# Entry
Amino acid sequence: MCQYQMEPEMLYKEIQRECIEKNAILVIVSKNQSLEAIKAYYDLGHRDFAENRVQNLLERKDALPADIRWHLIGHLQSNKVKNIIKFVHLIHTVDSLKLLEEISSQAEKEGRIIPVLIQIKVAEEESKYGLYPSALSGFLQEVFERKFEFIQVRGLMAMATFTADESQIRAEFQTIHTLFEESKSSPYIDSSIFTEISMGMSSDYKIALESGSTMIRVGSLLFQ
Ligand SMILES: *Cc1c(COP(=O)(O)O)cnc(C)c1O
# Structure
């Protein structure tokens, strides 16, 4: 693909343009990258960055400018929630009530309302994390009944199967989009804030944008 021959900065501008066209945002996944490489995107004006491990998130947050919006996109253990609650911008990977309870209690202590996404498992791979699509409506009802005052459920997050088969990726993203639309009309959701679908990575972000993603998480493609 020709995009791989582009300079990272040109590629960044091209992806930004594609996002604006679709009303989506680009979250740059900075895991495994040097602080200098991350700072280069910061200096271009970028502010949304993501890490998949709490420890790395904490280290990078301390080493980089304070106005970065840090997203957590990896599995979150309950015992680590308290470390990130002061500053995290969006937690993409909520998949249990137990985790929500911990986020809620730490958020209350901090007096912050924490936006979260529910992670859904659609990929073929035996990934350990995420709710099955069929479990979502029951989960949303339980969350509603618990009345978590310090949590905002902002939408869904998913990863497609790692495959060269574009039709399979598209089908999985469509499944998420349909699930999102169904959830929006659920009585257990505040549809005015349930607005985000976080899907699409370096290899499949174009398909994700065509399938209704509002937030793509791109890493390796931007750091070559
Ligand atoms: C690493 C990672 C990404 C980015 O992957 P790239 O292929 O490097 O773009 C996106 N989402 C999650 C959850 C990740 O762990």
Summary: The mean pLDDT is 95. Residues 48 and 69 are 5 Å apart (CA to CA).
